[in-house]
Protein backbone atom coordinates (compact mmCIF):
# COMPACT_ATOMS: atom_id res chain seq x y z
CA UNK A 1 0.00 0.00 0.00
CA UNK A 2 1.12 3.54 -0.61
CA UNK A 3 0.70 4.35 3.08
CA UNK A 4 3.77 2.57 4.46
CA UNK A 5 3.39 -0.72 2.58
CA UNK A 6 5.05 -2.51 -0.30
CA UNK A 7 8.42 -2.00 -1.88
CA UNK A 8 8.69 1.59 -3.02
CA UNK A 9 10.49 0.64 -6.24
CA UNK A 10 7.64 -1.62 -7.37
CA UNK A 11 5.08 -0.17 -9.82
CA UNK A 12 1.56 0.58 -8.65
CA UNK A 13 -0.58 -2.36 -9.72
CA UNK A 14 -3.99 -1.06 -8.60
CA UNK A 15 -4.82 2.60 -8.06
CA UNK A 16 -8.25 3.84 -6.99
CA UNK A 17 -8.93 7.56 -6.78
CA UNK A 18 -12.14 8.60 -5.04
CA UNK A 19 -14.19 5.83 -6.60
CA UNK A 20 -17.89 5.54 -5.78
CA UNK A 21 -20.60 3.16 -6.91
CA UNK A 22 -24.35 3.75 -6.99
CA UNK A 23 -26.77 1.12 -8.27
CA UNK A 24 -29.89 2.49 -9.94
CA UNK A 25 -33.28 0.82 -10.24
CA UNK A 26 -36.70 2.03 -11.34
CA UNK A 27 -37.76 2.66 -7.74
CA UNK A 28 -34.54 3.58 -5.98
CA UNK A 29 -30.82 4.17 -5.98
CA UNK A 30 -28.44 2.33 -3.68
CA UNK A 31 -25.15 3.93 -2.72
CA UNK A 32 -22.80 0.98 -2.32
CA UNK A 33 -19.42 2.70 -1.97
CA UNK A 34 -18.47 6.16 -0.71
CA UNK A 35 -15.37 7.86 -2.20
CA UNK A 36 -12.50 5.40 -1.69
CA UNK A 37 -8.83 5.96 -2.49
CA UNK A 38 -6.01 3.43 -2.24
CA UNK A 39 -2.91 2.16 -4.02
CA UNK A 40 -1.52 -1.37 -4.13
CA UNK A 41 2.01 -1.96 -5.39
CA UNK A 42 2.93 -4.96 -7.50
CA UNK A 43 3.69 -8.01 -5.39
CA UNK A 44 1.57 -6.99 -2.40
CA UNK A 45 -1.10 -9.17 -0.81
CA UNK A 46 -3.96 -6.95 0.39
CA UNK A 47 -7.19 -8.09 2.04
CA UNK A 48 -10.52 -6.28 2.23
CA UNK A 49 -12.51 -7.14 5.36
CA UNK A 50 -15.74 -5.75 6.78
CA UNK A 51 -19.33 -6.55 7.61
CA UNK A 52 -21.76 -7.79 4.95
CA UNK A 53 -23.06 -5.04 2.71
CA UNK A 54 -20.14 -2.64 3.16
CA UNK A 55 -19.04 -2.88 -0.49
CA UNK A 56 -16.12 -5.33 -0.43
CA UNK A 57 -17.27 -7.42 -3.39
CA UNK A 58 -18.31 -4.25 -5.22
CA UNK A 59 -14.71 -3.01 -4.97
CA UNK A 60 -13.49 -6.32 -6.38
CA UNK A 61 -15.97 -6.13 -9.28
CA UNK A 62 -14.87 -2.55 -9.99
CA UNK A 63 -11.19 -3.52 -10.07
CA UNK A 64 -12.04 -6.48 -12.32
CA UNK A 65 -13.75 -4.16 -14.80
CA UNK A 66 -17.05 -6.02 -14.50
CA UNK A 67 -18.90 -2.84 -13.51
CA UNK A 68 -17.93 0.82 -13.99
CA UNK A 69 -17.51 3.25 -11.07
CA UNK A 70 -20.13 5.95 -10.75
CA UNK A 71 -17.36 8.47 -10.18
CA UNK A 72 -13.62 8.45 -9.66
CA UNK A 73 -10.97 6.51 -11.57
CA UNK A 74 -9.43 3.05 -11.35
CA UNK A 75 -6.13 2.16 -12.99
CA UNK A 76 -4.35 -1.17 -13.49
CA UNK A 77 -0.61 -0.62 -13.97
CA UNK A 78 -1.39 2.96 -15.04
CA UNK A 79 -4.10 2.03 -17.54
CA UNK A 80 -7.64 3.21 -16.84
CA UNK A 81 -10.02 0.30 -16.19
CA UNK A 82 -12.70 0.32 -18.89
CA UNK A 83 -13.26 -3.44 -19.28
CA UNK A 84 -11.93 -6.73 -17.89
CA UNK A 85 -8.15 -6.93 -18.29
CA UNK A 86 -6.10 -9.93 -19.40
CA UNK A 87 -3.69 -9.01 -16.60
CA UNK A 88 -6.27 -10.14 -14.03
CA UNK A 89 -7.35 -13.53 -12.70
CA UNK A 90 -10.59 -13.76 -10.69
CA UNK A 91 -11.50 -16.63 -8.35
CA UNK A 92 -14.90 -16.85 -6.67
CA UNK A 93 -16.27 -18.69 -3.64
CA UNK A 94 -18.00 -21.18 -5.96
CA UNK A 95 -15.54 -23.22 -8.01
CA UNK A 96 -17.72 -22.84 -11.16
CA UNK A 97 -16.22 -25.94 -12.73
CA UNK A 98 -18.03 -27.30 -15.78
CA UNK A 99 -19.28 -30.74 -14.74
CA UNK A 100 -19.24 -32.17 -18.28
CA UNK A 101 -15.57 -31.32 -18.82
CA UNK A 102 -12.60 -33.21 -17.42
CA UNK A 103 -10.23 -31.55 -14.98
CA UNK A 104 -7.77 -31.06 -17.83
CA UNK A 105 -10.39 -29.30 -19.92
CA UNK A 106 -11.51 -27.18 -16.95
CA UNK A 107 -8.05 -25.86 -16.14
CA UNK A 108 -7.55 -24.69 -19.73
CA UNK A 109 -10.93 -22.94 -19.97
CA UNK A 110 -9.49 -19.48 -19.33
CA UNK A 111 -6.83 -20.10 -21.95
CA UNK A 112 -9.58 -20.92 -24.43
CA UNK A 113 -11.52 -17.75 -23.63
CA UNK A 114 -8.39 -15.67 -24.14
CA UNK A 115 -7.36 -17.62 -27.26
CA UNK A 116 -4.08 -18.55 -25.57
CA UNK A 117 -4.53 -22.31 -25.62
CA UNK A 118 -1.50 -24.08 -27.08
CA UNK A 119 0.62 -27.11 -26.27
CA UNK A 120 2.94 -24.85 -24.28
CA UNK A 121 0.20 -23.23 -22.18
CA UNK A 122 -1.59 -26.57 -21.67
CA UNK A 123 1.67 -28.11 -20.47
CA UNK A 124 2.15 -25.20 -18.06
CA UNK A 125 -1.37 -25.69 -16.66
CA UNK A 126 -0.77 -29.42 -16.19
CA UNK A 127 2.50 -28.67 -14.38
CA UNK A 128 0.67 -26.30 -12.04
CA UNK A 129 -1.96 -28.97 -11.37
CA UNK A 130 0.86 -31.36 -10.49
CA UNK A 131 2.39 -28.72 -8.20
CA UNK A 132 -0.90 -28.51 -6.29
CA UNK A 133 -0.96 -32.27 -5.85
CA UNK A 134 -3.64 -33.10 -8.42
CA UNK A 135 -1.67 -34.42 -11.35
CA UNK A 136 -3.53 -37.71 -11.09
CA UNK A 137 -6.94 -36.07 -11.66
CA UNK A 138 -6.45 -34.89 -15.26
CA UNK A 139 -9.03 -37.23 -16.78
CA UNK A 140 -11.51 -37.12 -13.90
CA UNK A 141 -14.77 -35.16 -13.87
CA UNK A 142 -15.46 -32.54 -11.18
CA UNK A 143 -18.14 -34.80 -9.66
CA UNK A 144 -15.37 -37.25 -8.77
CA UNK A 145 -13.50 -34.67 -6.67
CA UNK A 146 -13.89 -33.49 -3.08
CA UNK A 147 -14.75 -29.86 -2.34
CA UNK A 148 -11.15 -29.00 -1.49
CA UNK A 149 -9.88 -30.65 -4.66
CA UNK A 150 -12.40 -28.72 -6.75
CA UNK A 151 -11.15 -25.45 -5.26
CA UNK A 152 -7.58 -26.42 -6.13
CA UNK A 153 -8.65 -27.08 -9.72
CA UNK A 154 -10.38 -23.69 -9.79
CA UNK A 155 -7.17 -22.08 -8.51
CA UNK A 156 -5.15 -23.78 -11.24
CA UNK A 157 -7.63 -22.55 -13.87
CA UNK A 158 -7.25 -18.99 -12.52
CA UNK A 159 -3.46 -19.13 -12.42
CA UNK A 160 -3.07 -20.89 -15.79
CA UNK A 161 -3.52 -17.58 -17.64
CA UNK A 162 -0.54 -16.17 -15.67
CA UNK A 163 -2.26 -13.08 -14.28
CA UNK A 164 -0.28 -10.20 -12.83
CA UNK A 165 -3.14 -9.50 -10.42
CA UNK A 166 -5.14 -12.17 -8.60
CA UNK A 167 -8.61 -11.23 -7.31
CA UNK A 168 -10.03 -13.61 -4.71
CA UNK A 169 -13.62 -13.38 -3.46
CA UNK A 170 -14.02 -15.67 -0.40
CA UNK A 171 -12.27 -18.49 -2.30
CA UNK A 172 -11.91 -20.89 0.65
CA UNK A 173 -15.05 -20.17 2.66
CA UNK A 174 -16.95 -23.21 1.34
CA UNK A 175 -14.46 -25.76 2.70
CA UNK A 176 -13.83 -26.98 6.23
CA UNK A 177 -11.15 -25.46 8.46
CA UNK A 178 -8.51 -28.12 7.76
CA UNK A 179 -8.92 -27.76 4.00
CA UNK A 180 -8.95 -23.97 4.32
CA UNK A 181 -5.53 -24.00 6.01
CA UNK A 182 -4.24 -26.47 3.42
CA UNK A 183 -5.47 -24.29 0.55
CA UNK A 184 -3.96 -21.19 2.15
CA UNK A 185 -0.60 -22.95 2.40
CA UNK A 186 -0.79 -24.07 -1.24
CA UNK A 187 -1.69 -20.56 -2.39
CA UNK A 188 1.22 -18.97 -0.54
CA UNK A 189 3.62 -21.61 -1.89
CA UNK A 190 2.49 -20.79 -5.42
CA UNK A 191 2.82 -17.05 -4.81
CA UNK A 192 6.33 -17.47 -3.42
CA UNK A 193 7.41 -18.72 -6.86
CA UNK A 194 5.38 -16.32 -9.00
CA UNK A 195 5.24 -12.58 -8.44
CA UNK A 196 1.62 -11.47 -8.32
CA UNK A 197 -0.47 -8.77 -6.72
CA UNK A 198 -3.34 -10.23 -4.70
CA UNK A 199 -6.56 -8.55 -3.57
CA UNK A 200 -8.59 -10.82 -1.30
CA UNK A 201 -12.13 -10.26 -0.02
CA UNK A 202 -12.86 -12.30 3.10
CA UNK A 203 -15.06 -12.36 6.20
CA UNK A 204 -12.42 -14.46 7.96
CA UNK A 205 -10.18 -12.09 9.93
CA UNK A 206 -7.77 -14.91 10.80
CA UNK A 207 -7.34 -15.67 7.12
CA UNK A 208 -6.71 -12.01 6.30
CA UNK A 209 -4.12 -11.68 9.06
CA UNK A 210 -2.37 -14.96 8.17
CA UNK A 211 -2.06 -14.17 4.45
CA UNK A 212 -1.81 -10.43 3.98
CA UNK A 213 0.79 -7.69 3.89
CA UNK A 214 -1.92 -5.07 4.42
CA UNK A 215 -5.55 -5.26 5.56
CA UNK A 216 -8.16 -2.65 4.64
CA UNK A 217 -11.08 -2.59 7.07
CA UNK A 218 -14.29 -1.41 5.42
CA UNK A 219 -17.49 -0.40 7.12
CA UNK A 220 -20.69 1.58 6.80
CA UNK A 221 -23.42 1.66 4.22
CA UNK A 222 -22.36 3.03 1.80
CA UNK A 223 -18.99 1.48 2.46
CA UNK A 224 -15.72 3.26 3.07
CA UNK A 225 -12.24 2.33 4.28
CA UNK A 226 -12.19 2.91 8.02
CA UNK A 227 -8.78 1.55 8.91
CA UNK A 228 -5.57 0.30 7.30
CA UNK A 229 -3.49 -2.32 9.14
CA UNK A 230 0.07 -3.04 8.05
CA UNK A 231 0.75 -6.66 9.05
CA UNK A 232 4.07 -7.08 10.92
CA UNK A 233 6.94 -8.68 8.99
CA UNK A 234 7.10 -11.64 11.39
CA UNK A 235 3.58 -12.64 10.33
CA UNK A 236 4.11 -11.82 6.65
CA UNK A 237 7.12 -14.12 6.47
CA UNK A 238 5.48 -17.03 8.30
CA UNK A 239 3.38 -19.75 6.71
CA UNK A 240 -0.38 -19.35 7.31
CA UNK A 241 -0.60 -22.01 10.03
CA UNK A 242 2.63 -20.90 11.69
CA UNK A 243 1.57 -17.25 11.74
CA UNK A 244 -1.52 -18.14 13.77
CA UNK A 245 0.74 -19.37 16.60
CA UNK A 246 2.85 -16.20 16.78
CA UNK A 247 2.52 -14.14 19.98
CA UNK A 248 1.50 -11.01 18.03
CA UNK A 249 -1.30 -12.74 16.11
CA UNK A 250 -4.09 -12.75 18.74
CA UNK A 251 -3.62 -9.13 19.87
CA UNK A 252 -3.76 -7.97 16.26
CA UNK A 253 -6.81 -10.14 15.64
CA UNK A 254 -8.52 -8.50 18.63
CA UNK A 255 -7.64 -5.07 17.23
CA UNK A 256 -9.23 -6.03 13.91
CA UNK A 257 -12.41 -7.17 15.66
CA UNK A 258 -12.60 -3.83 17.48
CA UNK A 259 -12.21 -1.95 14.20
CA UNK A 260 -14.97 -4.10 12.68
CA UNK A 261 -17.32 -3.27 15.55
CA UNK A 262 -16.82 0.49 15.43
From TrEMBL:
Keywords: ATP-binding, Nucleotide-binding, Transport. GO terms for molecular function: ATP binding; ATP hydrolysis activity. InterPro entries: AAA+_ATPase, ABC_transporter-like_ATP-bd, ABC_transporter-like_CS, ABC_transporter_ATP-bind, P-loop_NTPase. It holds the Pfam family ABC_tran. Residues 14-245 form the ABC transporter domain. CDD domains: ABC_NrtD_SsuB_transporters. It comes from the Bacteria. This is NitT/TauT family transport system ATP-binding protein.
Amino acid sequence: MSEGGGTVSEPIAIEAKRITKTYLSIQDEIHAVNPITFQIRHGEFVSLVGSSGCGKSTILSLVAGLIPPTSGTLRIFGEKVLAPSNRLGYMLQQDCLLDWRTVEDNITLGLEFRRQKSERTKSRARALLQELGLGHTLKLLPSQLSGGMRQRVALVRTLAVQPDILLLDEPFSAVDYQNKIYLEELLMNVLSKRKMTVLLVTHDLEEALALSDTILVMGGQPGTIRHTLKVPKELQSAAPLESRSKSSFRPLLNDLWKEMER
